[in-house]
Please model this.
Amino acid sequence: MTVSVLVPSSLTREAEDKREATRKLGYVARAATVFRADRLIVFPDRDGERGEFDGGFVSTVFRYAATPPYLRNEVWGMRDELEYAGVLPPLRAVSRTGSESDGSGSLRQGIVTEVGPEGRVRVNCGLQHPISLNVPPKMEVDEGERVTVRISSRRPVRAKLVGRPLPGLSVERTDLSAALGREDAGVCIAASRYGERLTVGRLETLAGTIERDGMTVAFGAPERGLPDILGIEASAVPSSDEGDADDGVEPTADPGFDLWLNTVPDQGSGVVRTEEALFATLAPLSLRE
Model:
């Protein structure tokens, strides 16, 4: 099951300064990590961007936040976008552990610091010193490349390179339509106050489909929800489930989304911030029987 979270490039449009913008992005990355999202995707909303906090800034801060602390200095160095990176809350992503007998151990990100002879490389993966590892057959790595390392023992160190995607949260920039059109997008949900109210009964019909197919959830920006970003009238957003599909998902008239959901019905504040909407939405959608 793949979980993707989509946020617009205008996410920090109301921030007064770079420090506030960075802190807001940290909370969004934290929410995605807490609920085990696989991808955090920034889609363009250039009409809603303000000042220097564009999609490049947003994705850079996200990528930095998703980089393990032991690799940040080596990967990022000094960059203007990361001036206030110190205010980012730690993600503390849990280590992913294999269960198969020949592959047990935790998966960690590493960075190749040196390519040596006879198919060996030195890799910094957060241990006391970089470690020397064999490069598996048919696998090519270059200096500075990030790789996945499986560590089965720390004393003595036993580790190996594995040809698997990097563990942790993946950050991407792509068009909204492309993100919704992925083969593994699963149930595509637009989070909006104008959508169908999420109820216990509705959640029950969705849970099985999400567990089977995964989900992609898109969010809006401050003072600029998804209807504004997509250029559609709020009155055109389906606000109730008029279908009776067995899987609980009835495609809407809007291409790409399977349904629009209001996950904070009867909200007590006039505005629900994007980072708050992530927690309010991903929490119930992550529930299983």
About this structure: The longest helix spans residues 18-34.
